[in-house]
Amino acid sequence: MPMRCGSLVLEQLRDRCGGLVPWLKRKIVDPLMQILRKGAEPKKLAFSTAIGITLGLFPICGVTAILCGMAIAMLRSRCHAPSVMLANFIVTPVELSLVIPFLRLGELLTGGPHFPFTADALKKVLMGQASREALFGVLHALLGWFIASPFILVVLYAVLLPCFKYLVQRFSIKPLSPRIPLHSLQDINIKIRDV
Question: What is the mean pLDDT of residues 45-67?
Fold first, then answer.
């Protein structure tokens, strides 16, 4: 029986990456497929994923899960909690890589001094001997994220909405919004009382 091209690629990835592919499937692909199969609305999924990614980019590590939990509590039924948390989990490596751009954006907006990212400065921060410069660096990164986050949210929603429309249509087991009336007109019998 001949192998399909996709199967061949997966086999090659498994050989090269070892346990990475099963881990990605178990932690990312399987939960995403469960979300899609439950038939959630694409708008809600796109909004929730955009919220999860945007909050997941918060420049202080370890705070993003709390922020996502607070957003879920505030938005309640307007967001899809598993999508928010999955997006937050997926975006964690990107969060670390965007700390410096957020810092530089905050410095640019305030005209503040350039915070040097040296091993010595990071060591002082980790040892609790952070200087005033490090505190301003954190504040600049927060300001950069705060200014960029609405734009990130809007762009992500615009990009994710067509993606989720396609994915939900392709993988959903349940219909999106049934347009079948609860009662057909033939089932309704109007009783006229004699007065």
Answer: 95
